[in-house]
Amino acid sequence: MRKLIIILAAALAMQSADADDDTVTVLMSTSEGDIVIDLYADKAPLTVSNFLRYVDGEHYDDSSFYRVVTYDND
What we know:
With 74 residues, this protein is an alpha+beta fold. It contains 1 helix and 4 strands. It has one helix spanning 45-56; strands at 4-15, 23-30, 33-40, 64-65. The protein has a 4-stranded antiparallel β-sheet.
């Protein structure tokens, strides 16, 4: 079983120049490579705001995420 370790969640949280003004781009660096996440504040303003608050508070830094595999979702 491989464990995905978040080394630095959201090294960047910035307005995306290529996307709508309400889109925020976040870079998540993990032990398995980087993930670019687009957050759509116009569609989910409370969720985006809450996620960015956790990012700014460094709550995701050095976190671990696990995937539970069953026969139904494998």
